[in-house]
Structure formats: structure tokens, C-alpha cells
Amino acid sequence: MTTTTSATSSATSSLVASLGGGSGIDMTALAANLATAQFARRTDLLTAKSDTLDKQISAASDLKSTILSLATSLGDRVRTGDLSPKPQVANAAVATASLSGETRPSGVFSLEVTSLATNQTLASPAFAAATSTIGSGTLTLRFGTVAGTSFTEDTTHAAVAVTIPSGATLTDAANAINASGAGVTAYVANTAEGAKLVLKGQEGAVNGFVVEAAETVGEEGLAQLAWAPATGASEQLLASAGDAAFKLDGLAMTAKSNSVTDAIPGLNLVLTGTNAGVPTRITFADTSTAISTTMQDLTTALNEVAAQLVAATNPQTGDLARDSGALALKRAMSQLGTTVIMPSAPEGTPRTLGDLGLTIQRDGTFALDSKRLAATLKADPQGAAAMFTNGLYGIYATIDALARKSNSASDPGTLAGSISRYTSQKTKITADQAKLTEQQDALRTRLTQRFATADSHIGVSKSTLSFLQNQIAFWTAKSN
Q1: Residues 75, 80, 86, CA angle at the centre, nearest 5°?
Q2: What is the pLDDT of residues 52-107, one digit of tens each?
Q3: Which residues contact 156 (CB under 8 A, 6 or more apart)?
Q4: How crowded is residue 134: how many other Cβ atoms within 10 Å of its Cβ?
Q5: Bridge partners for 215 per DSSP
Q6: What is the pTM of this model?
Q7: Domain end marker among 393, 419, 445
Q8: 92 located within any domain
Q9: What is the pLDDT of residues 253-301, one digit of tens each?
Q10: Domain boundaries, position 279
Q11: Of 246, 275, 144, which is closest to residue 204 (Cα–Cα)?
Q12: β-pairing, 237-239 with 244-248?
């Protein structure tokens, strides 16, 4: 259809030219100008709407990006930056320490590790090679405490049955145990005596284990892998399972694993060595100076967001003057100083950003009350430090919630929701503009055709008039 229309327009233009532009008017240009004028108002309206939407999308995207960047940088600072009261173990060979949860420990702790948690390790009798067949049947692993020649099963830890198929080798047995999910690691060790199946359990005294064998009749041999403390060869038990034992501030404690998570609230310990009789110290970095610096930086950053919001929501000039997402963010930010962000903190301890000196001015900007911040840090430094956590509550969680809310495209009352709505409107306008262009081109083509016909008629009429004028002139001259 487009090719036909273009051909028709070209032919019409040639016809007008061949007729010498009978009317003396450029009919093609006239048709184009009239078509443009016909659609000018609607075209201008769509262009204006498109430009407005571009500005709204840009303003909302900038705001969303700014608040997200603020949340991200604050989170990094809390997790790994100067706001993290990093624990330090004086004797690094004894343990490593890291923070956990929302509680922020402080002060000095003494740590004395008398024994590390161990895992039980068994070795089977020697076989000629890893490919030696071992019979078939079922190996059953039962878990509990091994003490001397006795075994007390832990009934809360389910036994695991491992099927050993006919023709299985020592390597096949190791693979089957590893695939069983029993929590016991198996491998074949090629020793000076021959190939041995090695079984290693998890740390902790209750994770000791025995191995029972039920052999398939006619395919015996699996019993060689069985072991129990009362009947098994003592040399098969390479290591016994045991708990970690340590003293924290002189108090004796035990743990089933070398990873200790409950000895000090908010602190994880990984025990790596012993220091019996020579306690080491666990200390924490003082974050008071970092908190003061962070609050100053946070106030500056919030003012940048506030300035963007004020400009974007200006009733006369703002691109987001009536935008629900921008106005919702503006309301949320106006409540930052008084919102309780540490709901579990007792009365009288730092619970709001206002307690750390953040104040909001009448014009919507933020200021830092340094005297109030200093008073809070002096009265309750631990409570102030606890507000800088990457947990469910605190300053980071509050700013992060603003960022997440702004980035929720499914909520029409957010910046992301507004961007989604504006983008949808922009897509529709683009489609309307394309449709309008098609209609304008169609009108121009029709007018060009009509004007070409009219111009042709005018050209014929002018030729006839010229003939008659010449004929009359000839008759007049002849009569004279």
C-alpha cells in the first residue's frame, strides 16, 4: 500500500510539472502544508505531553537513584566500614571473632581455650586396593557418644542405612556413604599397609558413631567395615569425637563445635587453637568518633535528597509537583527524626534518629544537633552503636526501607510506581504520534491527488481560453 501511494504521489507531481503548473501554484507543497496545519495542534499536544513525561521519568529516576545510593553506602559502612566495632583477638592463633545479629558487644573479654572440638575418625582394615570387592548388603551408621568401650546412642539423631550393591568396591562404598547425607565423610586412603576406608564424622561428642553391617547371604565380606567400641579393633579409631572446652572471663563453657555462636551475645567465635593457662583478650573498636562523622555525613546526604524533593515537588515549577511517589517520600523523610527505629530498645535509651541529633527544619532540610549527639554518646555509647546495625531495625534498615519502598514498581504510590506509570503513558503517546503521522501522510496524499486533478483542469481551461483569445484576435485582424 505504501509503495502504491508513493508511486501515485510521484506520478501526480510529474503530471503537475508536465502541465506547466496550470494554476501557477505548487500544489504538492500546498497539500503538505495543509496536512501539517490540520494536525499541528494535536501533534504539538502530544509532543508537549511526551516532553513532560520525559522530565517526570528523569526526575523520579534521579530521586530513586539518590536514595538507593544513600542506603547502599550506609549499609557498606555499617557492615565493613568504620561503623563496624570490629572484634579483635589478641592471640590470633587461638580464635577469630566476628559480629552477628543486632546486638553490638563492647568492653573486654578474656578467652582461654583448653581443648578444641574434634570429630571421630575411623579406618577400616587394609584391603589390597581401592578396587577390591567388599561384599554386599547394608551398612548402618548410628550416632551418639563413644566413651571407652561403651556407646550411648543419640535417639534424636536418626540412623542412616547405606545400601552396598553386589560387586561393590571399597571406592563404591565411600561414594555410597558420601551420597547418603549422613554427615559422615568417606574416602579411600592408600596407606603403607594397603587401601583403607576412612570415615570422618562431625565435630562434637554427640556426633560419635558406630558402623553396623548386614551382609547379603553368599556375598559376605561387608562385616570388615563394621565397628563398635566394645568389639572393634582399637587401632581403627584414629580420633574420638569431643566437645570444645574454654573459659570466657573465667567461666567454664563447652561447645559441640569450634564455631561458637552463643557465648557472647552478638559475637561469633571460631576456635582455632588452645592457650591453657594463658588467657587472651577480646576487644572491640570504639565507634563513637565514627558515629559522629557518620551522622554529619548522613545529614548532608539527606539534605541532598531533600533539595531534590523540594525542587521536584514545587507546585509551580516542579516536574513531580503532584506525583504520589515523590510526595510519599517527602512525608516519610519529614518523619525521620521522630520515628522509633529501635522498637526493642528500652525507654531512656537511644531509639530515634533525633536521639542522635538529627533535626528537621521548617523548610524540610535537616540539621545535626551536635550537643545532643555528644550527650547520647556519653550517656549510652553502646545503645548508640547498636543503632548502626545491618539487622531488621536501626538507621540502615530505616534508610534501606525508604529505598526499597521507592523501588517497588508494584506500588503505584512509590517513585518506581510513578516511573512505571509514566513509561506506560509515554509508550501510548509514542503510538499515538505514529498513528497521527500516518493520518497526516494519508491526508497529504489525498490532497496532492485532488490538487493535481484541479490543477490539470485549470491548465486545460487556460489553454482553451488562450485558444479563444487567439482566435478572436485572428478574426478581428482579418476583418480589418
Answers
A1: 130
A2: 888 989 999 999 999 999 999 888 887 766 676 678 899 999 999 987 765 667 77
A3: none
A4: 25
A5: 137
A6: 0.56
A7: 419
A8: yes
A9: 999 999 998 888 888 999 999 999 999 999 887 778 888 999 999 999 9
A10: 87-113+249-284
A11: 144
A12: unpaired
